[in-house]
């Protein structure tokens, strides 16, 4: 006899609520029902998991502003697979991002000093908040994988002499590769394995009000092929290298890097701030065998009403997974009541964290992104393999996986304007019938 766990969100007042069997087992099926068919004879990518980022701002808020009992609670609810939602991927900035209290790298020097031998490299900044929280997350979830991305090289390596804008000077390609090696070694010394890196966050975006660095595809190919990968090989490192780390609207960039440095590249990292998730499949099919990772997407005040914002994460999350995504990582793990802290001079932030930490009151709030991530992470566990799923109605969006323990994980979202009765089937076997209200989400875990 199959066992079912069902979690449902119907709106702001009902978010990821466990459902008793009586609440859905009696829903009539048949005429008028939408059939969702699962086919585990067709399989696709294997999942690493879901998560967010311990930016400097997030780590500071969670480690220094929250009281100890609050921090223990939120870490458990974020990372514990049993008592929480079991987040299993972190994508942490290497140095300052836009969400940091100061602009810093791991090797800051006053002009005109340089340090190509990396003798003054140090991750001391991260030892205060980022590393302790990452270690605690790993303790709560031993399956955790750590990704890392820089927003900029140290200023002395760049054309403008600053971490704000500019490009990496070609004479410092080797030094920058050593910068990555030192980072991986320093984190290993703290007991943290870096699973994957990208050479540059949002390599085609060069804002001048927070750390950034323009890195054109030809430059990234050269850096990876002739410097970064050889440095990893030299030091016996198996850390994966993902290229691009930017929006869906420029698949030509990763295609260029994969053409020029494909043997040294393990996969592609994507963001959702432009284009469509189908770009992931386009590149995957053009260069088969390369991993597909979604490494940043933030919700925020530009999608103000709750329903639209929650629906966006559910709808887009399903599309990410249906387009070969092996990870789905949102942005800041925590922000404050002003959507910060941000680097000095940033201006008004509109991003939303997974949780909110009010710096004035100390109040901890779980945002809609926490519950949207829960719909995926709680049932789709690391190592799960996606199986085919299809719906008779395009408004009933679906994605399905088989976990390593044999259980089936299914996420459904009703993107339509009316309630639907849904019948879910596997190989001619009726699995479950349920009612799905407009703009509601349901996650289902079915025992073998």
UniProtKB/TrEMBL annotation:
Residues 383-443 form the Glycosyl hydrolase family 30 beta sandwich domain. It holds the Pfam family Glyco_hydro_30C. Residues 48-380 form the Glycosyl hydrolase family 30 TIM-barrel domain. It comes from the Bacteria. One of its GO terms (biological process) is glucosylceramide catabolic process. Keywords: Glycosidase, Hydrolase, Signal. GO terms for cellular component: membrane. GO terms for molecular function: glucosylceramidase activity. PANTHER family: GLUCOSYLCERAMIDASE, LYSOSOMAL ACID GLUCOSYLCERAMIDASE. Belongs to the glycosyl hydrolase 30 family. This is Glucosylceramidase. The lineage of its organism: Bacteria, Bacillati, Bacillota, Bacilli, Bacillales.
């Amino acid at each position: 006899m199959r066992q079912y766990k069902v979690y449902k969100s119907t709106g702001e007042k009902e978010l990821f609520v466990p459902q008793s069997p009586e609440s859905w087992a009696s829903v009539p099926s048949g005429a008028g029902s939408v059939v969702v068919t699962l086919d585990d004879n067709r399989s696709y990518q294997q999942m690493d998991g879901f998560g967010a980022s311990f930016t400097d701002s997030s780590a500071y808020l969670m480690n220094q502003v929250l009281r100890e009992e609050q921090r223990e609670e939120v870490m458990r609810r974020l990372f514990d697979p049993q008592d929480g939602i079991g987040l299993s991927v972190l994508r942490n900035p290497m140095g300052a991002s836009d969400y940091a209290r100061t602009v810093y790298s791991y090797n800051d020097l006053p002009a005109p000093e340089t340090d190509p031998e990396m003798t003054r490299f140090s991750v001391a900044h991260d030892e205060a908040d980022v590393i302790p929280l990452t270690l605690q997350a790993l303790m709560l979830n031993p399956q955790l994988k750590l990704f890392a991305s820089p927003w900029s090289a140290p200023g002395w390596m760049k054309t403008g002499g600053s971490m704000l804008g500019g490009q990496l000077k070609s004479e410092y390609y080797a030094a920058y590769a050593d910068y990555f090696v030192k980072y991986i070694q320093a984190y290993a010394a703290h007991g943290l394995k870096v699973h994957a890196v990208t050479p540059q966050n949002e390599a085609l975006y060069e804002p001048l009000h927070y750390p950034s660095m323009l890195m054109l595809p030809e430059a990234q190919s050269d850096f990876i092929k002739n410097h970064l990968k050889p440095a990893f090989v030299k030091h016996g490192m198996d850390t994966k290298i993902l290229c691009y780390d930017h929006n869906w609207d420029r698949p030509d960039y990763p295609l260029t890097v994969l053409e020029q440095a494909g043997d040294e590249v393990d996969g592609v990292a994507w963001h959702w701030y432009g284009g469509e998730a189908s770009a992931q499949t386009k590149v995957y099919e053009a260069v088969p065998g390369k991993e597909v990772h979604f490494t940043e997407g933030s919700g925020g005040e530009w999608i103000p009403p709750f329903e639209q914002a929650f629906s966006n994460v559910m709808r887009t999350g399903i599309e990410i997974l249906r387009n070969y995504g092996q990870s789905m990582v949102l942005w800041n793990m925590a922000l404050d009541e002003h959507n910060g802290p941000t680097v000095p001079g940033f201006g008004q932030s509109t991003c939303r964290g997974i949780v909110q930490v009010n710096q004035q009151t100390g109040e901890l709030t779980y945002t809609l992104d926490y519950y949207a991530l829960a719909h995926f992470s709680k049932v789709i566990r690391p190592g799960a393999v996606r199986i085919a799923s299809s719906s008779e109605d395009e408004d009933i969006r679906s994605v399905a996986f088989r976990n390593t323990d044999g259980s089936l994980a299914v996420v459904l979202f009703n993107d339509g304007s009316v309630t639907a009765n849904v019948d879910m089937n596997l190989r001619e076997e009726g699995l479950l019938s349920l009612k799905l209200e407009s703009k509601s989400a349901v996650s289902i875990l079915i025992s073998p």
